[in-house]
């Protein structure tokens, strides 16, 4: 091949060295690094701008909320149209007129000149107080109820049908003497079984036992299976020292309310006090079927069984009490002199050794 043609063919496949140098690996890495730095700069600027916008938004919300709260706190609360504790819808339609009167309308004070007023306005004042008293009784505000009933009697002293509910309001506040003074002269029509029961309870507190017995008997005549009256009767007879009557009342009450463990426990203690050991044991076994982790019940049962001369049952009750109580406490209790009769029993001695080893 001629030299010129050979040279021409070689030039066709030759590489331009000036362009090749522009794409060396060193130049490419520098460009990539520069691009990465530029990206990071953009990211930092965007983050800073986003943070500033977020903080500005939070500050704006805080300012708006603070201004709103200040406006709310400065605004005067509208005067209520109705009484504060009685919603209008809770009143019968014929009684809703009381809500259109201010609370001071219940005031029974008059100037004292001449005779006590007796006119339509004065009667309306009495009715106003009666309606508020009834609503207060329904929601358990007995102090307010008593005040309104007292106002009604101040306005119209001879008004019937007020003394019994006022006495009940006194009773709920544990003002037993005031309750008795009002209720003992009530008519038979007003003395329902619950009023009579409350009168009996008030008499117990006031230590007027004979009168209390009369009221409770009358309550049970109106409703023989009345648990509350039977319980009060049991307490009354305890105070009067009528043991047989107290036991009978307790048993009747627990037949109606067998789940009342507190009263059953009180009954068991009372039976131990009067020395009725067999019935006390019966009550305690019933209690331990329901309450299985009370050491004091088993300690009492052990004492009762010992009095019944049931050594095996007494020791078993002691053992259960020891399992449920502190060992030192169990030892102190079992070292009492009244248990001297058991000390020679092998089972008792074994129990004492096991407690000492714990």
From TrEMBL:
<keyword id="KW-1133">Transmembrane helix</keyword>
<feature type="repeat" description="TPR">
    <location>
        <begin position="193"/>
        <end position="226"/>
    </location>
</feature>
<dbReference type="Pfam" id="PF13424">
    <property type="entry name" value="TPR_12"/>
</dbReference>
<protein>
    <submittedName>
        <fullName>Tetratricopeptide repeat protein</fullName>
    </submittedName>
</protein>
<feature type="transmembrane region" description="Helical">
    <location>
        <begin position="44"/>
        <end position="65"/>
    </location>
</feature>
<dbReference type="InterPro" id="IPR011990">
    <property type="entry name" value="TPR-like_helical_dom_sf"/>
</dbReference>
<dbReference type="Pfam" id="PF13432">
    <property type="entry name" value="TPR_16"/>
</dbReference>
<feature type="repeat" description="TPR">
    <location>
        <begin position="126"/>
        <end position="159"/>
    </location>
</feature>
<dbReference type="InterPro" id="IPR050498">
    <property type="entry name" value="Ycf3"/>
</dbReference>
<keyword id="KW-0812">Transmembrane</keyword>
<feature type="repeat" description="TPR">
    <location>
        <begin position="227"/>
        <end position="260"/>
    </location>
</feature>
<feature type="repeat" description="TPR">
    <location>
        <begin position="295"/>
        <end position="328"/>
    </location>
</feature>
<keyword id="KW-0472">Membrane</keyword>
<keyword id="KW-0677">Repeat</keyword>
<dbReference type="InterPro" id="IPR019734">
    <property type="entry name" value="TPR_rpt"/>
</dbReference>
<keyword id="KW-0802">TPR repeat</keyword>
<dbReference type="Pfam" id="PF14559">
    <property type="entry name" value="TPR_19"/>
</dbReference>
């Amino acid at each position: 091949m001629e030299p010129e043609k050979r040279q021409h063919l070689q030039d066709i496949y030759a590489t331009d060295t000036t362009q090749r140098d522009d794409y060396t690996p060193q130049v490419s890495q520098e460009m990539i690094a520069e691009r990465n730095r530029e990206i990071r700069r953009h990211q930092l600027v965007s983050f800073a701008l986003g943070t500033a916008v977020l903080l500005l938004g939070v500050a704006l919300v805080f300012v708006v909320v603070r201004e709103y709260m200040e406006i709310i706190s400065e605004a005067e609360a509208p005067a209520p149209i109705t009484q504060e504790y009685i919603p209008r819808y809770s009143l019968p339609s014929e009684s809703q007129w009381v809500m259109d009167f201010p609370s001071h309308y219940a005031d029974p004070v008059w100037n004292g000149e001449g005779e006590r007023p007796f006119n339509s306005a004065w009667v309306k004042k009495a009715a106003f107080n009666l309606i508020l008293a009834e609503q207060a009784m329904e929601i358990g505000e007995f102090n307010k109820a008593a005040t309104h009933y007292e106002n009604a009697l101040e306005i119209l002293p001879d008004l019937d049908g007020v003394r019994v509910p006022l006495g009940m309001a006194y009773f709920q506040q544990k003002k037993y003497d005031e309750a008795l003074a009002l209720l003992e002269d009530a008519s038979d029509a007003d003395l329902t079984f619950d009023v009579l029961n409350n009168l009996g309870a008030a008499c117990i507190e006031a230590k007027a036992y004979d009168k209390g017995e009369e009221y409770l008997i009358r309550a049970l005549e109106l409703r023989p299976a009345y648990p509350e009256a039977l319980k009060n009767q049991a307490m009354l007879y305890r105070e009067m020292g009528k043991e047989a009557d107290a036991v009978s009342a307790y048993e009747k009450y627990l037949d109606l309310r067998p789940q009342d463990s507190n009263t059953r426990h009180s009954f068991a203690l009372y039976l131990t006090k009067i020395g009725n050991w067999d019935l006390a044991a019966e009550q305690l076994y019933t209690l331990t079927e329901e309450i299985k982790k009370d050491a004091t019940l088993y300690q009492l049962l052990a004492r009762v069984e010992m009095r019944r001369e049931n050594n095996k049952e007494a020791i078993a009750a002691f053992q259960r009490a020891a399992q449920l109580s502190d060992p030192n406490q169990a030892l102190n209790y079992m070292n009492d002199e009244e248990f001297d009769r058991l000390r020679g029993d092998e089972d008792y001695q074994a129990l004492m050794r096991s407690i000492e080893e714990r």
